[in-house]
Amino acid sequence: xxxxVRNRSPGPHQxxxxxxxxxxxxxxxxxxxxxxAIFSIYLAxxxxxxxxxxxxxQSEELVFASLELTAYQVSAPKPAGPQAPRPPAxxxxxxxxxxxxxxxxxxxxxFRLAHADVAVNFISEAARIDLNFASPQLLANFFTVLGIxxxxxxxxxxxxxxxxxxxxxxxxxxxxxxxxxxxxxxxGRTYSPRGAPFAHIDELSLVxxxxxxxxxxxxPFLTIYSGKPRIDVLDAAPEVIAAIPGITPDLLxxxxxxxxxxxDPQSVARMVSALPLQEVVTIEGGDxxxxxxxxxxxxxxxxxxxxxxxxxLTDKPYRVLSWRDGLDALTGSxxxxxPRQR
Length: 342
Known about the structure:
This protein is of the alpha/beta class. The chain has 8 helices and 9 strands. Among the domains are: 141 residues, no CATH class; 73 residues, no CATH class. The termini are far apart. 25% of the residues are buried.
């Protein structure tokens, strides 16, 4: 028998290059895994960001809907009573006609939309003291009502007036440096008074000598959007009414009682007719409203906004003058109690 001897072929020869390739492959796999993890985090963050943006957009749309409804309510008053029949031909031209009441100066309503309950209240900005029209006497009275001693209150009122006072011009037409600017320089301020109307209520923090706690306490009663020197005493807060020059405690109590009982506005007008500065008092609102919007979603999330709008325009229902987002925008606002019918 023939024996056959088989020669075994030698196995593959491993080199250092093979080990390097293995290590490189492992590094590539690890890098791909890291990239995959980073990409998954990016996708999660992107989805979360889009969700936040969607929530923000939805809240903004609900606020815009609230503003539209507010503008409609204050610009479409209904007749006070049934329409009187048209007078026959030849009737006297001065025959009494059905009167249309003025637009409401305050109100509230609610609606449901997009899985959310929305509560809205609005009030005329004429219920606040306009910094650009208030006299130093009114401002000094107001600070006194807030608990400031009279000499200090008068100083604060003068600083506010000085902030917006336009510099006088010399004979050559150049602006003359006023004493107010010198005071700011002496105090080490790197800026001068505006010399023009307040552009924002927060400019009060730039006015010389005004304490920040006083500013925060006063802001809910102040505005720059009323555009009127007069205060609507039917809607103003008690702190504002008490600051009106010439008002007495008896008249202040009588006004409060009239507001609580919904007295006829004309009787209130007669009540305040004895005030020495009639240019400060009115029983009418204006075209500017402060609108507060509270949104509560079905999932428990809450949003809020406080917006000041100008109505009575010819080209659009309203124009936004100021917009603050967040529930904190609703805190510290002054809304007088006891709504009443006009």
